[in-house]
């Protein structure tokens, strides 16, 4: 599977420097937004609710098209715009019902006319979207009203009136169908019902036919018109009314999946209690709070913005962001996230992100982007529907023309049978089954703190046969502590040596370097010419001399190792410790031993992976002895140590050759190339670096390794539901198509079959939103 990193995060501040045993990976180019593909499909194709995090290309004009809520309508509009010269690019967002057009103003005006000619109204949005400065998703609820009024051209009241009129027409036809006055009154009621419920369907269907396209609107337009002409006007009215009602129900059900993540928006308060210049506190709108402002939150209140605690201590419920079920202790220097709940003590924090750029907003944006992409099954279904719909039209035409000759039917009976076939053949159930299922699964994963960047990775995860796992921060806590250090310069004062190590370690964000700095806790000296040594450590000048602080590999390459040093290193490594050495041009000055502890969840996660038939393999830049000790504690049988980033790439390729589809799990800069090379990359979002999360396809927000097997189980369940839905949709259609051909199905039965099949697959897909951790 070929994949490209997507621009959904970063979620953390960028590191100032490279890791002590990590490599500075080359910048990974981010893929441009993927335009939605064409599909000759009907019904809602759930993407996400609109949100300001979804930025249009610079200089583009964003048009909101209320009636564009499914693939067939997007395809219609795209085809119309293809004929307008001068358009540089198009960016469709079905969830927001918008299209961003990059073109000069005069070309945009022509584009608006082309959209109008295709049967769709449009209105320009302000630059930046409807709420550029508001928290993401703030206007997500707008879709319902728009949909009622415009999405299928029928509000609830109009549909109710159309249904009443259709029932009236049926009643008059049944009671007094031969009385001329009653007949004409019934015909008028039927025509009015068709107009109320189907005027937009007709408009789109006629325009599609004029362009030589056979979509669902064209099918329904032909079927209802034909039934009306051959005298089945009460049935035609009822079919159109029921079809419109089914469309509305489907759209509402799809909106439920589409807006499943919308509930997160309400978690971030609209106001924040901000410290003023006169030391007073004032409640101000969250979206107007500036960076570095001090915000106060009392016990029981939700955190309005991202920040770093400056005063207080409390337990914080982070479930909305990380999926953790238990509160975590937070104190001065710790981060807090918008939407989380302060449970026990009053906190003050310094704002580090604007309302539209909080972790919560970016999580919502990540899910929106994922929901807007098309999974492999959905692409297949859309291609199938593009062939299926015209094929059914041709079949219906053949039934109408050949039945009188081959089966001796009356012409009106043959035509009626063909019209029933058209109604039965509506591909709604087939097409909507896939997006609703995928979106429901993506939303369920997001609620568990698993951000899957697209339906492709959701579907493909079930095929994984091996998972490569980084050690530090993935299997272990990633919060090592300095347990021992020793100066190797006998007779010299150890103070200056420890201060040099402190100065170099303080410049790195790697967990091992941070552990050394925290363990020494000394004043730092100025460091010049600081540099990261890929996969080896760091280097810098202190007091005019050059020093390195790095791993065993670095000292070996500098030819500064000795039997005595090897013995010390071996003793530490056998205890599962990571050893870092300080050296200058004359030799090794000191040895620092850092110990990390394995996460409680890692053992369980490894056991679950094995139970799923997925082989876990540890890939680490740490020494082999330490790696084997940690791997044994975690239950991992296959270990690779002393790996540079390029070595990890080679190991990923080897695992692919031996096992098949291979995933990679990591959190560091040195893991980014392997994450990008793997079939599916999993990044730890709590401690992970920005580049690792950008390169990955799945981000685990709480660094819990058990989320990896959980993702695989969700993928397998999603695939199962997809296959169920496709089988249900095609099976029901096949049964009623046979009944239609043999003359035992009516248009009533046809529309109820279509409605029933659609609602059945939608309900089945929505079940995934309730998926539990062990599903």
TrEMBL record:
Residue ranges for the region (Disordered) are: 129-151
Q: Where is the composition biased (Low complexity)?
A: 129-139
Give the E.C. number(s).
7.2.2.12
**Chief site of localization:** membrane
Class of the enzyme per the UniProt entry, highest EC level = translocase
Query: Which keywords does this chain's UniProt record carry?
Result: ATP-binding, Cell membrane, Membrane, Metal-binding, Nucleotide-binding, Translocase, Transmembrane, Transmembrane helix
The record describes its membrane topology as:
Multi-pass membrane protein
Q: Which Pfam families match?
A: E1-E2_ATPase, HMA, Hydrolase
Transmembrane regions: 182-202, 384-407, 419-444, 721-742, 748-766
Highest taxon above the source species: Bacteria
The cross-references to InterPro entries, in alphabetical order and at most eight, read:
ATPase_P-typ_cyto_dom_N, ATPase_P-typ_P_site, ATPase_P-typ_TM_dom_sf, ATPase_P-typ_transduc_dom_A_sf, ATPase_P-type_domA, Cation_Transport_ATPase_IB, HAD-like_sf, HAD_sf
Q: Tell me which Gene3D superfamilies the record gives.
A: 3.30.70.100, Calcium-transporting ATPase, cytoplasmic domain N, Calcium-transporting ATPase, cytoplasmic transduction domain A, HAD superfamily/HAD-like
Composition-biased stretches (Basic and acidic residues): 140-151
- Where is the protein localized? Cell membrane; Membrane
Q: Which residue ranges does the record assign to the HMA domain?
A: 59-123
Recorded catalytic reaction(s): these are:
Zn(2+)(in) + ATP + H2O = Zn(2+)(out) + ADP + phosphate + H(+)
Output the NCBIfam families linked to this UniProt entry. Answer: ATPase-IB1_Cu (TIGR01511), ATPase-IB_hvy (TIGR01525), ATPase_P-type (TIGR01494)
Which family does the similarity line name? Belongs to the cation transport ATPase (P-type) (TC 3.A.3) family. Type IB subfamily.
Protein name in UniProt: P-type Zn(2+) transporter
